[in-house]
Amino acid sequence: LLRSESAAFYVYDREQGTLTLSAAFGDAEKQAIGEQVGMKGLAGRVVQSGVSQYTNDYERELGTDIHPVFRGVRRALAVPVRWQGDLRGVISVADRDSLRMFTERDQSLLEAFADLASLALHNAEAYSIHSRQARIQAGFYRISQVLSSSLSRPATLAALAQAAAEVLDGASAIGVGGVGYDEDLP
Question: What global pTM score does this model have?
Answer without folding.
Answer: 0.68
